[in-house]
Amino acid sequence: MDGAGDIAAIAARAPVIPVLTIETPETAVPLARALVRGGLPVLEITLRTAMALEALRTIVAEVPDAIVGAGTVLNPAQLDLVQRAGARFAVSPGCTEALARVARSSGIPFLPGVQTVSEAMALAELGFQVLKFFPADAAGGLTWIKAVGAPLANLRFCPTGGITAETAPAYLALANVACVGGSWVAPRVAVATGDWQSVERLAATASTLKRR
Fold first, then answer.
1. Is 140 left (phi over 0), alpha (psi -120 to 50) or beta?
2. Distance CA 40, CA 200 (A)
């Protein structure tokens, strides 16, 4: 299957995809284990730090129950890197036509980012039916998602960016929301201090959020 497929099945695994920016490699495995124990097996490791690829490889090797993907993928070269590192899926904050076409041919499930109706329509023409809406809170939030439900009836979205434990339920109540992405389940302080019990509790609460 090409990169336009399978992402719906991954999104269906849990209502929340933790968006993780890993600063130190030693936190990668215990963080992933805590999230998986809490019921959030789909993890997005963002390519925002020098440690990201190392963290991704380590989690893939040591946390077999995790479905590990790479986020902040900006170009075809990065897509190739994360695929070689063992990523099960890839996520972009936006998407160029070149990246979308390479993702389709690569076979890796791909969640491309959009902020406008035109961008969503362009990716739909290429076969992508599950899209990341980013930055959700800044780009219109619930109002945008509700407004596009009828004209883009065949598309579903993963809103990410500014989503919190308080706002996530309202997004997930919408029929065109597949899941949400968020970092609140892995607070910086908890990760820095190794408070994995708190992370697991936050994940467990998030994993029970209802989807329409």
1. left
2. 9
Q: Which residues of 153-177 are buried (b: 16+ CB within 10 A; e: fewer)?
A: eebbbbbbbebeeebbeebbebebb
Query: In three state form, how does the secondary structure of 63-87 look?
Result: CCCCEEEEECCCCHHHHHHHHHCCC
pTM for the full model? 0.96
Q: Distance from first CA to last CA of the chain, Å, rounded?
A: 27
Q: What is the pLDDT of residues 149-202, one digit of tens each?
A: 999 999 999 999 999 999 999 999 999 999 999 999 999 999 999 999 999 999
Tokens (6 digits) for 159: 């809103």
CA atoms of 105 and 141, how far apart (whole Å): 31
CB contact set of 8 (below 8 Å; sequence gap of 6+): 129, 130, 156, 178
Q: For the segment 63-98, what is each residue's pLDDT rounded down to a tens digit?
A: 999 999 999 999 999 999 999 999 999 999 999 999
Q: Is 8 left (phi over 0), alpha (psi -120 to 50) or beta?
A: alpha
Separation of alpha carbons 52 and 119, rounded Å: 28
Does residue 162 contact residue 180 with C-beta atoms inside 8 Å? no
Residues designated catalytic: 44, 132
Bridge partners, 69 (sequence order): 44, 89
What dihedral angle (degrees, nearest 10) is formed by the CA atoms of 37, 109, 180, 113?
150
